């Protein structure tokens, strides 16, 4: 099978297209013929900085956690009826050498989630890690519900900073699906169009001098939850717009990733910070997230493409280097690698 691999850490030039044996599913596993592979920031960071202390966990790595395709073989203990099922994939490369940047991938059956017949492979390859991490962010608040779904966040105000990114986009859509009132940030007319297309009811420019006042104009008592992409850059503004007892859920680092906070102010207002990394969430939390994300996908609440505010940037498998570079450069949209056509 054709596959993208790397055998050492480094820039995108360490990625190479090669031929590998088609893997066989073991007990409890399924093999998926990959249609589309989704690329996330985690993928290029693992490639460039290694898995643990600058080292790779495996001598040969096929990258990418997310994807979509069709199950074509099952292992012992898996219902044979799953063969031929359309699925979306998550965590394919987490603590495993083989990700979705290949014509075939083998994963535990729980990581191949049925994709409804009316849902595109593009959506399937785009949810995965961004939606699972967004789910964790949205449930990080005080007195949060156990699950997301219609009405679960009713009466809550959520501020999504970085709503044009893949996780921010998923956070907006999941929050709106769950009944929250969503404020999203934008710093250009195109960004405003995109976050409104995702479902945000209010938009503010978080870089403006009036940002805090603009948020307070639509949430006088402050927002209950901030889904934050740049915690150190916006720490001061976050505290100005966060309600007493509110939560900042941080899912990314920027610059040196150092956040300086006024301890006494945080204590006095009972504010909490929750840092979120989708791949290291506890298995039980991942299962809950995947279940809720699958429900949102089935309900049509998670969508991608320009009309929904998340343009798609597509590359063929042999241009996976370019796909990694696009994600690393902060491309506006979801980066996908086309692996096969059914």
TrEMBL record:
GO molecular function: oxidoreductase activity
Keyword terms, alphabetized: NADP
Domain named Enoyl reductase (ER): residues: 10-337
Pfam families in alphabetical order: ADH_N (PF08240), ADH_zinc_N (PF00107)
CDD domains, sorted: zeta_crystallin
Parts of the chain that traverse the membrane: none
Name used for this protein in its record: NADPH:quinone reductase
Organism field: Micromonospora haikouensis
Lineage, opening ranks: Bacteria, Bacillati, Actinomycetota, Actinomycetes, Micromonosporales
